[in-house]
Design a protein that fits this description.
With 331 residues, the chain is an alpha+beta fold. The protein folds into 2 domains: 229 residues, Bromodomain-like (Histone Acetyltransferase, Chain A), CATH 1.20.920.10; 69 residues, SH3 type barrels (Roll). Helices cover 40% and strands 10% of the residues. The chain contains 11 helices and 7 strands. A 5-stranded antiparallel sheet has the order 6-5-4-3-7. Strand 4 and strand 5 form a beta hairpin. The longest helix has 28 residues. It is elongated, with a radius of gyration of 27 Å.
Length: 331
């Protein structure tokens, strides 16, 4: 992809575009007027009735069909296209990055008119994404996809067969499934966790459109998306901890990260102080991952103390679980 600039355009071009924009807006208003008056009042009712028809259990995604009755509207010429030789640009996308609102090397979103700056743009990246290359992120996403493949998700692991559901394309604008997510990850198409999650949410959106919000498959999809959100959040908290937890090497919980996590004594209500590593703090709470059983919890910050060599409280000798946790921490 190549950098594109609008600086070479003169004032005359801007004035002509402004006049064209005013004309286009008038045409849009007139087109909307005509479309509203000519719309069949019974079409909406018929569409709703069609969507209520039960579909076979193998269907999973969907989108409402586009209305083709409206008259075509003349689109404004994109200023960036005048000086752009990029063959991939086809006029469907905005000329500026949707996040940082700047020109630059961009990736055209195939789902909407937005553009997102490539992952190397550190100005809009999260802290976790600055620690990863696209290759490393793609590798982590493979683990997330495997966890999303829960029992009962067979209907979402491949494309919906149009032979069994010939009307599927009438409702679905952008089909999505776990297999497609996996292929996209292998092609390194995702530059951040948000992009992956946005694609995954198409599965839920399509399922609701085609099957309805109360369908059994829709409930399964909601669980899949919750798992996806959890996995993406884990990557954002610490990519190195996430990789270690997925690979489960020997002493994986003790491996230090490049962004070192403080060792603390943390106490939950009803439990003694326990050795843990603090991953982050938010709203007066600390997310602690405990040694031993590798449980985790949000602990009030006033119940967390930096690790000391001496145990600041008495421990019964019979507490073998506590001793094993201490041994793991000392590795």
């Amino acid at each position: 992809m190549e950098l594109r600039s609008r600086r070479s355009q003169g004032w005359k071009m801007s004035e002509s575009l402004a006049e064209e924009e005013i004309k286009t807006e008038q045409e849009v208003e007139e087109g909307m007027d005509i479309s509203t008056r000519s719309k069949d009042p019974g079409s909406t009712e018929r569409t709703d009735q069609k969507r209520k028809f039960p579909s076979p259990p193998h269907s999973s995604n969907g989108h409402s069909p586009q209305d083709s009755s409206t008259s075509p509207i003349k689109k404004k010429t994109k200023p960036g296209l005048l000086n752009s030789s990029n063959k991939e640009q086809d006029g469907r996308n905005d000329f500026y990055c949707w996040v940082c609102h700047r020109e630059g090397q961009v990736l055209c979103c195939e789902l909407c008119p937005r553009k997102i700056t490539v992952a190397e743009c550190i100005k809009t990246q999260s802290k976790a994404m600055t620690m990863l290359t696209i290759e490393q992120l793609s590798y982590l996403l493979k683990f997330a996809i495997q966890k999303m493949k829960q029992p009962g998700t067979d209907a979402f692991q491949k494309h919906v067969p149009l032979e069994q559901h010939p009307d599927y394309a009438e409702y679905i604008f952008h089909p999505m499934d776990l297999c497609t997510l996996e292929k996209n990850a292998k092609k390194k198409m995702y530059g951040c966790t948000e992009a992956f999650l946005a694609d995954a949410k198409w599965i839920l959106h399509n399922c609701i459109i085609y099957n309805g919000g109360n369908h059994k498959l829709t409930q399964i999809t909601k669980v899949v998306i919750k798992i996806c959100e959890h996995e993406m959040n884990e990557i954002e908290v610490c990519p190195e901890c996430y990789l270690a937890a997925c690979q489960k090497r020997d002493n994986w919980f003790c491996e230090p990260c490049s962004n070192q996590h403080p060792l603390v004594w943390a106490k939950l209500k009803g439990f003694p102080f326990w050795p843990a590593k603090a991953l982050r703090d938010k709203d007066g709470q600390v997310e602690d991952h405990f040694f031993g059983q590798h449980d985790r919890a949000w602990v009030p910050i006033n119940n967390c103390y930096l690790m000391s060599k001496e145990i600041p409280f008495s421990v019964k000798k019979t507490k073998s679980i506590f001793n094993s946790a201490m041994q793991e921490m000392e590795v």
